[in-house]
Every structure is written in C-alpha cells, then in structure tokens.
Amino acid sequence: MNIIIDVKWDGEASAYYAVCDEIGLGLESDSYDSLIQRVREAVPELLVLNNIQGCTAMCFRTEERREKCM
Q1: CATH architecture classification, 2-62
Q2: How far apart are alpha carbons 35 and 49 in whole angstroms?
Q3: What CA–CA distance (Å, rounded) separates 32 from 17?
Q4: What is the dihedral of CA 17, 66, 62, 18, to 10 degrees?
Q5: How is the chain split into domains, by residue range?
Q6: Which residues of the chain fall short of a pLDDT of 70?
Q7: How far, in Å, CA of 11 to CA of 9, rounded?
Q8: What is the pLDDT of residue 58?
Q9: Model-level pTM?
Q10: Which of 1, 2, 9, 19 has its CA at a distance of 20 to 30 angstroms from the CA of residue 47?
Q11: Hey, which residues does 62 pair with through a beta bridge?
Q12: Count of beta carbons in the 10 Å neighbourhood of residue 21
C-alpha cells in the first residue's frame, strides 16, 4: 500500500502544505524542503497511531507552481 500525500502552494499564506486524509496528515511550512522533511517524520507516527499496516512507500503528488512575468 502506498500513502499518497498532496503537496500544494498557498499563495495567500506564502506556504506549502501537505495533506493526506487517509492518515490524518495536515502540515504546512514556508519551504518545500522543510515540509517534506516534516512529512517524512510525521507519517510513521501517524501510521502507528491509526493502526495502519502494510505501507510500503510515501508518494508525493505536487501541484506545479507557475508564474508568468511580462
């Protein structure tokens, strides 16, 4: 079983956030790298707390952020 984590950018808050309803994950950070590190630390704990077994991988689904300057 793979855990799919959605990572998005919130322009109003100037922060990245990660969610996975399946395991109750909801985190945010001002940098992408910091967020990914926090997720990697939190997921194993959430799996134990939610008694979820058989997780073989974390998959990050990241929304692309594009800016157009003219």
Answers
A1: 2-Layer Sandwich (3.30)
A2: 21
A3: 8
A4: 0
A5: 2-62
A6: 64-70
A7: 6
A8: 92
A9: 0.83
A10: 9
A11: 7
A12: 9
